[in-house]
Amino acid sequence: MDTWLVVVIVLVIISTVGYLICVRRFTCECGRRLKLLNVDRCPGCQRYYKKEGKSVRLLGPGAVEDSPVFVLPDSEIAFNPADWKWPPRCAVCGGPVECYEKVTRGRTTNTFMAGAMREVIKFTFGVPHCRAHSRGVEDGSADSLNIVGHTEGALRFRSYDYWMSFKRMNCHEA
Ligand SMILES: [Zn+2]
Ligand SMILES: [Zn+2]
């Protein structure tokens, strides 16, 4: 039993030290204290920040990330992707539309009934891209990114500008 206790204590110390090395504490322009692991959104003012080595960069107009970090929660857009409007530009670089990339997503219905499973509905939609780019928009139902405050399903965008345009065209109240 004692050796197990030592093993557990050592593991706790290792993970704590690792966490402290990876996380950067940072004060947002709005005054909130944030813990940055990679890309995080300030829960106060919704600005996005990215940790780059020892510095922190504000992600704003023109930003295109390697992974889709800009989040649009399902609650802000129409349930059926057939009702979404896509800005007629490549979802990564903003160039001409030359193809549509198919994305499939599952959404659970919000009908809670005693003892019943929630129903999952599958949708497929096409995301405009130029020939040089792909994966500009992803379905965020697999929530693998470290973005604070979003456990619900969402669409995720690589391009800040495309994300903003899509929001302007589709959000109930932006
Ligand atoms: Zn803020
Ligand atoms: Zn492109």
Q: Globular, elongated, flat, extended or rod-shaped: what is the shape?
A: globular
Largest sheet: 3 strands, antiparallel
Identify low-pLDDT runs. 142-151
Strand order of the largest sheet: 3-4-5
| Pattern of helices and strands | HEEEEEEEEEEH
Distance between the termini: 57 Å
Report the structural category: alpha+beta
- Proportion in β-strands: 25-35%
Please, how many domains? 2
The average pLDDT value, as a whole number, equals 84
The distinct bound ligands, ions and cofactors come out as:
zinc ion
For the CA atoms, what is the radius of gyration? 20 Å
Compute the number of helices. 2
Task: Give the % helix.
Answer: 10-25%
Write down how many β-strands occur, each being a DSSP E stretch of 2 or more residues. 10
Descriptive account of the structure:
This protein has 174 residues and is of the alpha+beta class. It folds into two domains: 2-59, no CATH class; 70-170, no CATH class. The chain contains two helices and ten strands, in the order αββββββββββα. It has helices at residues 2-22, 160-170; strands at 24-27, 33-36, 39-41, 48-52, 55-59, 70-73, 99-108, 120-129, 137-139, 154-157. The strands form four sheets. Strands 3-4-5 form a three-stranded antiparallel β-sheet, with no helix packed on it. A three-stranded antiparallel β-sheet has the order 6-10-9. Strand 1 (24-27) and strand 2 form a beta hairpin. The N and C termini lie far apart (57 Å). 18% of the residues are buried.
